[in-house]
């Protein structure tokens, strides 16, 4: 019954009339208006009554997976239907829809990939683009595509919803279309700035949360943090501090929320805390707009978020911490006034807010690597990317750099046109290097192994390291180690799990997330289906591990590093220092290979290579002739020794695996 009191219901008829009369409408839903969970339902009733449901589904895009899943679940419950039937969701590698589905929530990336198979998106009678103000990379590309689709399909309704007042830009982009504002139902929020510059935002946030808790005023707490690592530290510290303090008036339930958290744990933040217990949710910026947690009376905002930004120095994206924009800060504060008056504690000064924060965030399309987007647009027949209808065109250098990366991988030819390899790559919902690895694997005869490796790389957080049991979990993890390759260590984990009957107990015994491994198995199944459609043979390399390493090298040769000193490498192309991470299988392996390739660089205290594999210098010259050449005289004795040691280790491991040895 609660939804009947949301502001959207008071303006329902007026809004529907505007949508009936216009193909494109921009809906500005102020905080607390109910647009995310209710707008699609309101429209589904109208479309059904007008016979629109005969012509297609209502699709609702979300910039984040967590939001697509949680909103679909909430809407299915409110409509009294089973999730996956009339109401469903689709995210990468997970489709919970059926032939009955009329209301489909999905990530914007899913709709983008669907446009590859169905350029006019005829499956849909109406598309709602929710949280458009977040300006995710895929959302911006969809803007350009959907603008053209609506001109070709006069029967398609497009509703763009945004939580901010930045409607003029959207309206102008789509051809001066009308906008409609749904008033919010919010309460007063007191905003308190820090008097001094905060040096440690985690420590300051924990202190602030405990102070709120001790004061005793009712209401739950929402604390923002930039990323998973900070969230886990904050949760652990808060839980320990709250349990020790004799001053606590009531217990404190500390709950994390971030995109990689298993869905059953994510669901806990929406459950009402039992009487006598205060809830403290520690979240990434996902809780700014995408998710709404009822009962929040206090917001703690350190003023930071993690953003993916293209780093020209390393030639790839890096995830770094940046100050939030003023618009983000205001959105966060508003979360304290959803159900009652609240307080927002900003862990930064008023001066920092006014002079160090941008008015609004830079759209993702203007700051990240565009290789995936370029590949997708090329496959959709967009020849001149500089003429594509971007709301905010990306820097020309970014487009050219992305095209260069695709040319290196063989996806584009010298004229910038899509190659047959590129057409195959676009079929896989993977980053271009991983798609290339899949294609090369079929040619080299190791596709069975690479299928598993790519699936393992597509699912985060396979291992876990519980507090107080770090040494035990590290010892178990080392048992899977393949000294010359992190990629092959992941392969080893999967193969041993398979040998043990895909057992959840086995996973728990080895500090491996059973749910993550089940997801890997699902991903593998879907990728195999795509490979079968591409007529790619799934064959095993058997004991030819060098073939697997060479295949990995074929996808990552542009991310190659050369040994400089103990544990220290330099990127072969840029000369930038990069290091083996202590969790790598190659770390402390007795010898260090002259050359390695890596999946990505992670910036923390140093530039650490993540997912590293030892390769031969000759392979780099063979696979990346545009970068490397190896003279015969340069085949160092050390390289030969290292190669022999790898072979010796491999033989020893094979002997250990033989029955009876």
Automatic annotation (TrEMBL):
According to its UniProt record, which reaction does this protein catalyse? ATP + H2O = ADP + phosphate + H(+)
User: Residue limits of the Helicase ATP-binding domain?
Assistant: 16-183
Report the protein name in the record. RNA helicase
Arranged from A to Z, the UniProt key words for this protein are:
ATP-binding, Helicase, Hydrolase, mRNA processing, mRNA splicing, Nucleotide-binding
The molecular function terms of the Gene Ontology recorded here are: 3'-5' RNA helicase activity; ATP binding; hydrolase activity; RNA binding
Under the heading SMART domains, the entry gives: DEXDc, HA2, HELICc
Query: What broad class of enzyme is this?
Result: hydrolase
Write the signal peptide boundaries: none
Membership in a protein family: Belongs to the DEAD box helicase family. DEAH subfamily. PRP16 sub-subfamily.
In the record, biological process GO terms are: mRNA splicing, via spliceosome
Q: What is its EC number?
A: 3.6.4.13
The residue ranges of the Helicase C-terminal domain are 197-381
Keyword ATP-binding in record: yes
Annotated organism of origin: Ciona savignyi
């Amino acid at each position: 019954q609660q939804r009947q009191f949301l502001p959207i219901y008071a303006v329902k008829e007026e809004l529907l009339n505007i949508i009936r009369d216009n193909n494109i409408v921009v809906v500005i839903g102020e905080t607390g208006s109910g647009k995310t969970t209710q707008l699609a339902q309101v429209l589904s009733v109208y479309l059904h009554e007008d016979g629109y449901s005969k012509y297609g589904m209502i699709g609702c895009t979300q910039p984040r997976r967590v939001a697509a899943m949680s909103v679909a679940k909430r809407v299915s419950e409110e409509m009294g239907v089973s999730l996956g039937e009339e109401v469903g969701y689709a995210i990468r590698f997970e489709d919970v829809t059926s032939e009955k589905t009329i209301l489909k929530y999905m990530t914007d990336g899913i709709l983008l990939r669907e446009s590859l198979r169905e350029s006019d998106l005829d499956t849909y009678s109406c598309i709602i683009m929710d949280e458009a103000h977040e300006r995710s990379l895929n959302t911006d590309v969809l803007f350009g595509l959907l603008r053209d689709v609506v001109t070709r399909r006069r029967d398609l309704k497009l509703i763009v919803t945004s939580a901010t007042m930045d409607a003029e830009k959207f309206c102008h982009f789509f051809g001066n279309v009308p906008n409609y504002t749904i008033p919010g139902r919010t309460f007063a929020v007191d905003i308190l700035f820090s008097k001094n510059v905060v040096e440690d935002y985690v420590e300051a946030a924990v202190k602030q949360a405990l102070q709120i808790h001790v004061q005793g005023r009712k209401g739950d707490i929402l604390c923002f943090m930039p990323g998973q690592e900070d969230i886990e530290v904050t949760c652990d510290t808060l839980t320990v501090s709250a349990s020790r303090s004799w001053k606590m008036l009531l217990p404190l339930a500390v709950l994390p929320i971030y995109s990689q958290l298993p869905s059953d744990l994510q669901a806990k933040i929406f459950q009402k805390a039992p009487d006598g217990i205060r809830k403290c949710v520690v979240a990434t910026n996902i809780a700014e707009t995408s998710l709404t947690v009822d009962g929040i009376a206090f917001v703690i905002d350190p003023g930071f978020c993690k953003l993916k930004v293209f780093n020209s120095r390393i030639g790839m994206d890096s995830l770094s911490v940046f100050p939030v924009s003023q618009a983000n800060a205001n959105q966060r504060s508003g979360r304290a006034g959803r159900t009652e008056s609240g307080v927002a504690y900003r862990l930064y000064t008023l001066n920092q807010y006014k002079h160090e924060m941008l008015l609004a965030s830079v759209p993702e399309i203007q700051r990240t690597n565009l290789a995936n987007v370029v590949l997708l647009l090329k496959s959709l027949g967009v020849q001149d990317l500089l003429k594509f209808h971007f709301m905010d065109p990306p820097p020309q250098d970014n487009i050219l750099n992305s095209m260069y990366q695709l040319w290196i991988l063989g996806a584009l030819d010298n004229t910038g046109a899509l190659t047959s390899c590129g057409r195959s790559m676009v079929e896989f919902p993977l980053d271009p290097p991983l798609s290339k690895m899949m294609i090369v694997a079929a040619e080299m005869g190791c596709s069975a192994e690479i299928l598993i490796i790519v699936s393992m790389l597509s699912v985060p957080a396979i291992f876990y390291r519980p507090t107080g049991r770090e040494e035990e979990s590290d010892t178990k993890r080392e048992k899977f180690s393949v000294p010359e390759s992190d990629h092959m260590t992941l392969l080893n984990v999967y193969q041993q799990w398979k040998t043990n009957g895909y057992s959840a107990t086995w996973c728990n015994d080895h500090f491996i997330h059973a749910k993550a491994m089940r997801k890997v198995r699902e991903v593998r199944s879907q990728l195999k289906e795509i490979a079968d459609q591409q007529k790619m043979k799934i064959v095993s390399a058997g004991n030819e591990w060098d073939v697997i390493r060479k295949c990995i090298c074929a996808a990552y040769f542009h991310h190659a590093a050369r040994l400089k000193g103990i544990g220290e490498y330099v990127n072969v192309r840029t000369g930038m220092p990069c290091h083996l991470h202590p969790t790598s299988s190659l770390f402390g392996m007795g010898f260090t290979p002259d050359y390695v390739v890596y999946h990505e660089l992670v910036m923390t205290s140093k530039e650490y290579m993540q997912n590293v594999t030892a390769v031969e210098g000759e392979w780099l010259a063979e696979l990346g002739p545009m970068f490397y050449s190896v003279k015969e005289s340069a085949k160092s004795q050390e390289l030969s020794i290292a190669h022999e040691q790898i072979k010796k280790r491999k033989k020893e491991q094979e002997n250990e695996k033989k029955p009876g040895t």
